[in-house]
User: Fold these one by one.
Assistant:
Number 1:
Amino acid sequence: MAFLTDDKLVIVGAGGAIGSTMVQTALTMRLTSNLCLYDVVAPGMMGVMEEMFHCGYDGVTLTATTDPEEAFKDAKYIISSGGAPRKAGMTREDLLAGNCAIARGLGENIKKYCPDLKHLIVIFNPADLTGLVALLYSGLKPSQVTTLAALDSTRLQSAIAKKFGVKQYEVTGCATYGGHGEQMAVFGSAVKVKGTPLYDLIGTDACSEADWEQLKKDTTQGGAKIIELRGRSSWQSPAYCSVEMIRAIMGGESFRWPAGTYVKNEKYQNIMMAMDTTLSTAGCTYQMPKGTAEEMAKLDQSYAHLCKMRDELVTLGIIPAISEWGKINPNL
Amino acid sequence: MAFLTDDKLVIVGAGGAIGSTMVQTALTMRLTSNLCLYDVVAPGMMGVMEEMFHCGYDGVTLTATTDPEEAFKDAKYIISSGGAPRKAGMTREDLLAGNCAIARGLGENIKKYCPDLKHLIVIFNPADLTGLVALLYSGLKPSQVTTLAALDSTRLQSAIAKKFGVKQYEVTGCATYGGHGEQMAVFGSAVKVKGTPLYDLIGTDACSEADWEQLKKDTTQGGAKIIELRGRSSWQSPAYCSVEMIRAIMGGESFRWPAGTYVKNEKYQNIMMAMDTTLSTAGCTYQMPKGTAEEMAKLDQSYAHLCKMRDELVTLGIIPAISEWGKINPNL
């Protein structure tokens, strides 16, 4: 079976649950013949490497390293799940500051070791912010950096399918936009349930207004449900969806969900958030989502919330004031 | 993307590390549009189900149940990882009695709920014995039941590649036969390193006789290495290789490694062990491996070891004496 590319793909955080699943998914999809595992801790990563050797993937060159220079040299694609998880006693700000500092290091390593990188996908939380920081310090173009936002849309699709007792793939047009936190904007306008517009069904016996509110709540809290059932936050779905994203960027099958992208238009500026995106070998392009006045107002709120977090990063000294960004990355 | 089949595939032990990875691998490979998760414990399995929903696999009907009747009804393919795992310090043989009782239940459920099953793959250890017991009680034909044996061969390939400093796929013809325990027979006769027969290289500066003994040892202990590095026994590679097996059985890409199969020929009888196998929609066919006198003697030893374990099962009352097998399964 042919590979989609022979360009080097680096999985950052390859020793972790998400990273190891990304490695295996990328190899199973036969995305590239050249895959590098990178992690700051060796034993877990080497265990993943051994497992991949034992899979016997044909025609693949695998490397593994804890040295960022060795990992990033000649890299053309990077997916990074390499953040620190939130631990007991940590405030949200601690997580924000800690992971954004990691994202800054990621961006700086890209600028230093692989400025010719084609695309970076950032998936560690809060991804809207870590993605923004990594973009800033990487020197890459906005079209070259995306964040994982798809899980909110697939959770919406899943929640609606359960509610109406249909197969998940019979629910189409699901999307959430804006931030990837609980302040996301859930868009129902384009959703169809077996061909019938969702908004024609809301308020009927099949789905009350309160039910719809609950569905939106289930969507924003889909991640918490996994923690409840499996005893830890999700890893299979973030790994899978982010590898689907890089597949589209490599020229493979198109990606069906929104991605987080850098936005600078008449309404929203200097922020990373989920928009109506298209991923291809040209990178990520976006347009404004179309929705009801209520949905657009929700998107405004989500944007405002993200701006607040971004400004916090300025206050914390992790990123400079927006007016200074052009000095670090002229593409912004 | 089309599916290989619409027949029902059941993953037994779907809530576990191996099972959940098999579910995801089968869906990522788009083997079937009809996949059922089965486990005796609900929460973990439902967590896997949620994760798969969040992946948004298109066109797939997923079900999950703790009821064997619901799971097995109309099943055409089953892969079972549903045994108790091996813990650090335990040999595969330690697991014998407990997991063979589970295998008996698996076979009985197949006979009761899905006698039209096309193929069963058993991967919980000691797989040679659990596979044999499941075959006996399932009533299936020998060609319809296989066990996972591939990891020994991929570990051999990996060990040789490291030793000679070549890419893993440049080492060809790797195979181990007989049991999947430490008594396996490692065959080097057909191995080539970048086109050069391995046996021409052994005894040279590149690889002493002692080095070759060490390589064989590394092969038989490849699983222990994973426990050492990751703190638990392997899950990504057994999941991946067993899904590759069922893909071949479904008519997909051919499977490149030996599988465990029921053997009854002039030399070996009434045993399940790795042979030179071919997997296809016709099931599993095999021929005797070809090797040096020393290798064949090692295979005899491995067979004798398996017979001892099989006879232990008779003594323990888990299976009847061989003379009685035909009453339970006329195909044997």
Number 2:
Amino acid sequence: MMTFDIEHFIRPVRKEMELFRKEFAASLRSDIALINEIADYILDQKSKRIRPILVLLSAKLCGQPNQATIVSASLVELLHTATLIHDDIIDDSFTRRGVPSVNAVWKNKVSVLMGDYLFSRSLTNMLRLRNYKALDLLSKISESLSSGEIFQLAKSSDNGMDEENYFRMIWLKTASLFAGSCKVGAFSVSGKSEEAEALWEYGKNLGMAFQIKDDLFDYIAKEEDIGKPIGRDLKANLITLPLLHVLEKMDASESRSIREGIRNGLEPDEVQKINELIATGGGVRYTEEKLKEISEKAVQSLAVFPDSEVKQCLLDFIVFNQQRIS
Amino acid sequence: MMTFDIEHFIRPVRKEMELFRKEFAASLRSDIALINEIADYILDQKSKRIRPILVLLSAKLCGQPNQATIVSASLVELLHTATLIHDDIIDDSFTRRGVPSVNAVWKNKVSVLMGDYLFSRSLTNMLRLRNYKALDLLSKISESLSSGEIFQLAKSSDNGMDEENYFRMIWLKTASLFAGSCKVGAFSVSGKSEEAEALWEYGKNLGMAFQIKDDLFDYIAKEEDIGKPIGRDLKANLITLPLLHVLEKMDASESRSIREGIRNGLEPDEVQKINELIATGGGVRYTEEKLKEISEKAVQSLAVFPDSEVKQCLLDFIVFNQQRIS
């Protein structure tokens, strides 16, 4: 089986990726010293820049990337970076990609504001597109991101997280921005609406698959690979698909008692016990099947496009996600 | 001397204010139950709705308020509400207008996200204006709001807060949205650019005066009037004009030692001592003079408009701010 590193996906859009990097760095600049200091810290962090790559590849699939493509790539990354900073506050997470998170270095106060600032910068950059179709899309997605996280918190505390709500949640909080990145890439080169819709579907399925893979990591990854503690979701009262599958097969009272335990905070031996439940109940296997199913949907979404190097790259991305270990 | 209550300012735009209330309530709706629950809580709180009133009055001063005026009034209030929710997290403030703040009821996690959600809703509403002039203005202001707060935190911790930086800070974090509210009101009725600029200046000066008045409260107000503890800014390491004036007259080492004390957290007797310093050093008197000066500038900003009921209302607002006790 072919394995890919992130470099593989940059190859067809190397020049555009360089322009993106410059644009992104420039869009973080401010005349306030502390903002620049945090911006430098963010720029120094290793990041795969998945969403900008999706913008660039999608644009290239539909036409010739241009300045609007570069601005779009930068603004989706600004939006993503803003949500990451706020996510780390919400999850009380003090590491990100193996290094101290912004809230660990500058505390929550500055981090709340820095997220807000990046969000505003993203908005300012959106407006440079002078394209209401793209703006309407992006504003809806920015609503999705926060409402998805709120939905997750609400359903985690009212016992309402089930498989249907799980898929709704990962659509809102993760896949919507993948879908939006692909579609706005198509918009930037005035792609046909059939193409934009196909890329939207592709991004949606890829994004769902991406989040499912991330949720699997909480049960099966190595801590040194993903740069954050294993079992963190579980400890943070976040019930994801591997556990949901097992809970839904249990009788109601047993499932309720486990949900209650998670909500009240787990001891290490209880985390261990849940891990065993998931193993014996087939929670990981079920989740891997779902991942495969959605990944196949992502492949089918691209059927309208003729074969090309760029299309192959987008197809490879689906495999890359299935294989990644961090 | 005339005294005013907030009703006075609603009178010329009563019908529009009713439309604003409906629009604002509708724009908070979501299909996620927890969001609606928090939205209802926010709508139940007493609020003067100063910024929407400024939008409506400014529009009426330049023409006939219309649907764009109502949407503008709603979106500036959304933006303001988002920043209030985040401000309460940043200030560790558990009351707002005398009732528990959103972060006190739902904790910081939900509050960070609810602020983000409202911010996104504000953006979605901006786009309904289909007016790039207004959008560019509003995106710049939303950047100002967070960068002003970051600037305040930075200058409070690096001894860099001086009078010049204080005025820059209150422009960014408060007055920019007042100025923007007035200008976007003018834009909504396609007011002449001379009128829009005059209203911008008016809003800017009124907003600065408003923040100066708020900062005075930390030293002179009654706790039961303002619905939050006195001396809170000081305890939160926020150095505002009354204290700055006194610090700038001291010799450098004495001033440095007071700043250090504030940064490290003050005991009640130290707060008392600083209050005495401000009283003997004329900090409150100096700040009141500045307030008067800027209020007069706000009056002059409106000189281009012929006399009218609406203009008088905007002039009365300046007096209202000078007189208010909460």
